[in-house]
Fold this protein.
Amino acid sequence: MRYHEVIVVGGGLAGLRAAIAVNERNVSVAVLSKVHPLRSHTVAAQGGVNAPLGNHPRGHYDNWEKHAYDTIKGSDFLADQDAVIRMTREAAARILEMEHWGCPFSRTPEGKIAQRPFGGAGFPRTCYVADTTGHALLHTVYEQTVRFQQAAERKEMVLYPEWLITNLAVEGEECRGLVAMEMATGRLETFLAEAVIFATGGAGRLYGNSTNALINTGMGMAVPYWAGIPLKDMEFIQFHPTTLYGKNVLITEGARGEGGFLVNNKGERFLANYADSGKAMEVAPRDIISRNMTKEITEGRGFEGGYLHLDLRHLGREKILARLPGIREICLEFAGIDPIDEPIPVQPGQHYTMGGIDCTTECETRIKGFYAAGEAACVSVHGANRLGGNSLLETLVFGQIAGDRAAEYVQTKTQREQGKKALEETLARTEEKIKKTLNSTGKEHPSKIRDAMQDLMVKDVGIFRNGQGLKEASEGLRDLKERCRDIKINYKGRAWNQALVIALELEGSLDVAEAVVAGALAREESRGSHSRTDFSKRDDQNWLRHTLCFFTPEGPRLEYSEVRPGPFKIAERKY
Ligand SMILES: Cc1cc2nc3c(=O)[nH]c(=O)nc-3n(C[C@H](O)[C@H](O)[C@H](O)COP(=O)(O)OP(=O)(O)OC[C@H]3O[C@@H](n4cnc5c(N)ncnc54)[C@H](O)[C@@H]3O)c2cc1C
C-alpha cells in the first residue's frame, strides 16, 4: 500500500496545476495518469486561452464582467454565475502566471501577449501560442512540476505515469484513496490518501467522430459515478464546427478567428443567412455554427459526402505560416491539401464534454476529501455550451482551487491514514473482476462493442436529437451492456494487456454514455448544444436547472438542482 497525503488523478493541465498548488503548501502529492502527463489531451489544444487583458493593438476595452457575461450568454444561461465570475476574475492572474513560468505566448508588435477573436466575444480576447497553445501550456506547467519534484525544501511530489485508476475507496462519506493498475505489469496497487483530486479530462470517445484523444474514454468520470457522486449536465456535448472531413482532426476556431470563411457549395458565406449567427458570423458560438452547418449539408448545399469548405486562402501565405502552422501541417498530413492554395473540407464533430463530476465552485464533491477539476468536472462554468478558449482557462483556475482546497483539508485533518480496510476490500473486488475479465470465454471482442457504442452515439445523440432516437439509443446501450457479459480476451497476460484495458474502460464508457442519453431524453427543450427537434424552444420555466445523474445498478437515476443566478440578466434566445 502506498501513501501520499494528496493524490491527483490526471496529468493534464488541470491535474498538474492542482498538484503544484498542493505542493506549494508543503503537502505531499502524487500524480497518477494512464499516459505520460505530456500525452494528456491538453497537449492537442490549439486555438488559445481566454483572459480579458484587452491587449489587442486596436484597443478593445475588456474586463472580467464582459468576459463573464459572454460566458453566461454562451452557456445559454445554464452556467452558475458565481462560478463564472470566479473564473473570469482570476483569468488574468493565471495567464500572467503562465507567462512568468515561461509560456512562449505569441506577441503584439509592442511585445504584449497577443489575443485573437475566438469564443463568442466578437473581439480579441484569446491569448495563444500560434496554434499549439495546449502544447505550450502543458509543457510550461510540466517544467514547473519537475522544479517542484527537485525542491528539497518541500515534501515529495511523485509522478506515476501509465497507471490506470479503476476504483475509489470510500468509507462512510469519506474518500480514503484508490486502486490503480500499473499498466506495464498489470499489477494492482492500493493508494491510501487524505484527499483525492480527479482531473481526468473529457469523455469525447463515447463518440466515433471525436476530436479527442483515444484515451478520453469517460472512465475517469465513471469511477466517481460508481462511488456515488452524480454526473451533472451530461446531455450537453459540444460539437465543434470545423473538424477535418472524414478524419475529425480539429481545425481550430482560431482559423476563423484569424479571418477564415465558411463556404457552401454555392460559394456563399452561408452563416449570413441565419439570424442566430448574427454579426459574429464565423466566430459565433460553436453550437450555433455546428447546427447551421448541419442544416446546410442536409438541405443539399454541402459538398458530396457531406462537408463544407473552410477557406483560408485570402489570409495569405505569411499569416497562415505565422499563425496557423499546425493547421497547415494537419491539412498536408491528413488530407494532402495545402490551405494556402485550397479550401479545407470540414464537418462538425464531437469536441467537448460540458457536463461532468458534480462539484462546487471550490471543487468539492459530496464525498469528503474528493475533489474534481478540469474537463472531468462540472463546476459549472460552461452550462449548455462552452465558449472556445474557456476550458484551458477552467483547467488553470479550478486546478489551482482544487489543489488549494485539498491541501487545506489535509492540513486541518486530525485523524490520518484511515481506511486501510476499505482499500483492501476495494482491491479484492477489483482483483476478482480482472481475473473474471481475463478468464472470460465468450465470443465478443470488447473493441467491437466500443465501436458499436460510438456509432450509436453519433447516430442518435448528435447535434440534433429527438425522443424516438434517444429511446433507441438507450435500448441500444442496454443491449451493448448485455453483450459485455459475453466477451473474450485472447491475450491472458497481465503486462501491457491493451484488450484488458479496453474491457475495463468500456464498462465506464457505457455507463457514462447512459448518463448522457438519460439526461438528453428527459430534457424536453433545446438549450445550448442540446438541440431537440421535437422540443425546439428553450424552456426556462421548466428547464433552467441542472441535471444530476446518479449511478444505480438498474440504470441512471435523475434529480435536478437549481441554476445559481447572479447579476447578469437572462436574455431571450434568437432562433
Ligand atoms: C483537439 C482539441 C483542441 C482543443 N483546443 C482548445 C483550445 O484552443 N482552447 C481551450 O480552451 N480548450 C481547448 N480544448 C479543450 C481543452 O484542451 C481540454 O478541455 C483541457 O485541456 C482538458 O484538460 P484536463 O486537464 O481537464 O484533462 P486532459 O488534458 O484530458 O487530461 C486528463 C488526464 O487524466 C488521465 N486519466 C483519465 N482517466 C484516467 C484513469 N482512469 N486512470 C488514470 N489516469 C486517467 C489522463 O491520463 C490524462 O493525464 C481542445 C480540446 C481538443 C480535443
The chain has three domains: 2-236+354-421, 245-348, 428-541.
